[in-house]
Amino acid sequence: MARKSDSVFNADKRIRLGIWGLGRGMSFYRACQALNFDVVAGCDYNAHMRERFLEANPGAFATDDADAFLSADFDAVLLATFCPAHADDAVACLEAGKHVLSEVTAFHTMAEGVRLVEAAEKSRLVYNLAENYPFSAAQMYVARRWKEGLFGDLMYAEGEYVHEIRSLAYTHIDGVPIEPGYALHNWRSWLNFHYYCTHSLGPIMVASGTRPVRVVSLPGTQSIPGYPPGRTMGMGTIAPSLITMDNGAVVRNLMGGTTNDVHQFRYWGTKGSAEIGHGLFLRLGGGGGAPKLEVTADWGEMTPLAEKMGHGGGDFWVLYYFARQILFGEPAPWDIHSAADVTIPGILAYRSSQENGQPYDVPDFRNKAERDAWRNDEFAQPRYDVKKGCFPRTADKRLTGRFNTIMKGLLRQLTVYRAYADWIQVFDEVVDRARVVELADALIKVYPDMRRTMRQARRLADAYPRSDGARVLNSVLEAMDEQATGRAGFLERVKKERARLKRKLRR
Q1: DSSP secondary-structure letter at 171?
Q2: Count helices and strands in the chain by DSSP H and E runs
Q3: What's the pLDDT tens digit per position in 430-444?
Q4: Residue 279 buriedness (CB in 10 A; 0-12 / 13-18 / 19+)
Q5: CA trace torsion 423, 429, 434, 437 (10° rounding)
Q6: CB 15 within 8 A of CB 37
Q7: N or C: which end of the chain has fewer CB within 10 A?
Q8: Is 87 a residue whose pLDDT tops 70?
């Protein structure tokens, strides 16, 4: 597959691509041309998403009608619809004769997984999962060296995808507040983070060549302010699980939304270990006190293309493997069966957490007998009524229609305020104290908008005090120290504190 000047592949064939879900789906767009994809169709229920798509693809077909989209003339679908809908949407694509690259996760219930696996097997079309975290330069380096035997056999690993995304309960991925303004995001507002397990587990599977066989999890119920609709649902809880792999290794898989975003990985093998976080570090020498050194990693000749793409280059590689399989028949890392392997542990971890730690064996959906055992299992987390939203159906829509806009502003302002209020408490211990002064500057700048947003939030919360919306608003207002920050004179006190900090710095 020697590379042509205008393409990664030595192939004249072009792949006509439709994108279903034009929020996340458009993130892949920059690599399409170099990977023999021509984007010819798009589908999204949001008019502003379709408009943005057509600006980037003049002459393409765009619609909000899924049937019309799937009836159009193209070869493959980049599927980026709402997460719990992926299975049914992928089946519809396969039945329409389209290859499928599906965003994570592959399915939402075990029964959906059975239907999807069997639809993909029957179709003989290409199905890939767009799990991109294994394809950063560091992860691909570890995977390559693991296969060469540098680390030995996997003993234990830790993968972390802890990502606080409260604002996405109230806005689309492009930051535009959801309309109507009292509604919530289709799934980011309520889906338990256990379900979103592939970014932390996937890299470990690819690197070590192992698959999960057993999972257990305990419930976590603490939450930070601003996640709807309560403390026992949604992406605002910490979601750890322990997974046994088929070689006997144990993996700690950690997801959640909390006060420290981390995407770190640690691997322990029988001959050596690796850590991926702020750099790539290996400990080689077969012992706990062996030398630990930092190494470099890139993608070789693909680096200029991969480094321009999102998720540490991972978006480029899932498109690359998808195109390569369509063009040349070379298997991709995430076929339908490995997609099931990486999706099922999240479904069963949520179930285990709801049963106070009941362990579950992870079935292998390559095996029909194991599929049959789950064929009718539709167990799933209860869904929130996102269309109704956080307020009574009889509420004044003119008032509640401002909810998402208020929440978007409030959450941004909360972070600015808390960063200032908390860091000044440890100012004398901070190494780079000038950064704390910058936090005071940021609060002074945002404060007029912050006070205005807080007043709007208080009015809405008081109008419907028993609603989920009021509980969410009150949790954020409490974290913003509403009684103190809303008083006259607060801004002047911040300015005086900033001046005091500046004097300290000069001394």
Answers
A1: B
A2: 16, 15
A3: 999 999 999 999 999
A4: exposed
A5: 30
A6: yes
A7: C
A8: yes
- Residues near 20 by beta carbon (within 8 Å), at least 6 away in sequence: 42, 43, 44, 66, 69, 77, 78, 79, 80, 81, 89, 93
DSSP summary character for residue 480? T
Residue spans of alpha helices (H) in 35-165: 47-56, 66-71, 86-95, 110-123, 137-147
Predicted model pTM: 0.95
Are 199 and 161 in contact by the 8 Å Cβ rule? The answer is yes
Cis peptide before 180 (omega within 30 of 0): yes
The SS3 of residue 361 is strand
Phi then psi for residue 459, to 5 deg, are -60, -45
The residue ranges of every structural domain in the chain are 134-300+335-364, 397-506
Burial of residue 61 (number of CB atoms within 10 Å: 0-12, 13-18, 19+): middle
- H helices within 373-489, ranges in order? 397-400, 403-423, 434-463, 468-479, 482-485
From the CB of residue 405, how many other CB atoms can be counted at a distance below 10 Å?
18
Q: What angle do CA 464, 465, 470 make, to 5 degrees?
A: 85
Q: Among 266, 251, 166, which Cα is nearest to 217's?
A: 251
For strands 212-216 and 238-245, give the pairing: antiparallel
Percentage with pLDDT > 70 across the chain: 98
Instruction: Tell me the backbone φ, ψ of residue 107, rounded to 5 degrees.
Output: -155, 170
Q: Give CA separation, 210 vs 26, 33, 61, 154, 201, in Å.
A: 32, 34, 42, 8, 11
Residue 52: both structure tokens together: 């943005």
Q: Is the pLDDT of residue 222 over 80?
A: yes
Least confident residue range of 3-12, 238-247, 277-286, 393-402? 3-12
Query: For the sheet containing 15-20, what is the strand order?
Result: 61-63, 37-43, 15-20, 76-79, 99-102, 127-129
Tell me the β-bridge partners of 40.
none
Domain 134-300+335-364, classified CATH 3.30.360.10, yes or no: yes
Copy the structure tokens of residue 258.
């909390």
**Bridge partners, 293 (sequence order):** 282
Q: Output the CA torsion 126→76→186→309 (10° steps).
A: 90
How many whole angstroms separate alpha carbon 85 and alpha carbon 80?
9
**In terms of Cα–Cα distance, which of 397, 265, 326, 416 is closest to 99?**
326
